[in-house]
Amino acid sequence: MMNAFHGSDLEKIEELYGIRKEEIISFSANVNPLGISDHFKKSMEGELDCIEHYPDREYTSLREAIAGYCKADPSDIIVGNGSSELIGSVIRHKIKPKTLIVAPAYSEYERNVMLCGGEACYFDLKEEEDFRLDTGDLIKRLEKGLDLVMICSPSNPTSYAVRKDDLRRILDRCEALNITCAVDETYMDFADDEYDITPLTGEYRCLFVIRSFSKFFCAPGLRLGYAVCHDEKMKQQIREHMDPWSVSSFAAKAGEVLVADTDFIERSRRYIREERDRICHILDDMRSLGLKYYDPKGNFILLRLPKDKMDSKEFFERAIREKMFIRDCSTFRGLDERFARFCIMKREDNDALMSLLREGID
Known about the structure:
Elements: H1 10-17, E1 25-26, H2 38-44, H3 60-70, E2 77-80, H4 82-92, E3 98-103, H5 107-115, E4 119-124, H6 135-141, E5 148-152, H7 164-177, E6 180-184, E7 207-212, E8 225-229, H8 232-240, H9 249-259, H10 262-284, E9 292-293, E10 300-304, H11 312-321, E11 324-325, E12 327-328, E13 339-343, H12 347-361
Parallel strand pairs: 1-11, 3-4, 3-5, 5-6, 6-7
Antiparallel strand pairs: 2-8, 7-8, 9-10, 10-13, 12-13
Helix pairs in contact: 3-9, 4-5, 10-12
């Protein structure tokens, strides 16, 4: 049975395993376990009437709110229908782009390149180097004829993040060769500020940073994302590839409320940081059993399982029988049946998953 499900595939899980989706604890979706804040719910109660009107075509108020949140210029903010629309737009803004994808990576990068008749090539991170980006080697792959490089930081599925100094070296090379560097920061809200390269957009014309409300703000159904880009020509080209009013009036208002909820933002970051450290200590105790994990910077952790004891498919099956949905990573480029990923959930649920993991490899 195929079990490399995406985090949004709860309906498929429900159908195949006979478990009501409401009962499933999704360690696969990488969504903030604190859920939607009470402040947000109360703030939006009186906003339903906004759907009677078209959104502001320029999304002025939303862009100003986002700019304040990520410390950028409002004119450099592009809003879209989730990060997925923005990923597609930056790939399509060049004709049939030859695109270098740092892998393992989100499959939508390659899919969008193929859809617009482009060519996808890969810079494969190495397991023996803990999937850390070798900046010097990547720079050697940046050459004339390349249109775009796609980097995810923190990376899905490895949870590795690229430091600003390393990104500067990459951006210097991209700038010299007129290569667009798109950095997917979907999970950056969970990471430490030292990894956030959004402030560099004002320095580099080639840089296009993609962010999302889905994961950190626990709002995947809202379908709201944004990008930060300083280059006027690139912004114009990308906006031309986007549908008008792709963000609803309700989503636009919700975005303004979410980025202003400083209490929720601080609580979420503190919880993820503390719980991530706690889980890593638990995983450290399993190293003697052959388990390995990779230093996480996001809200999820990649595991290498001791294959002779339990592979990713068996881990998936054991977990789903207990109504816990983890990610079998065997379908990611560069990974195999040794690898699985889980995100940080509520403490009691994390403990249950850790107990199940230990039972499987002990």
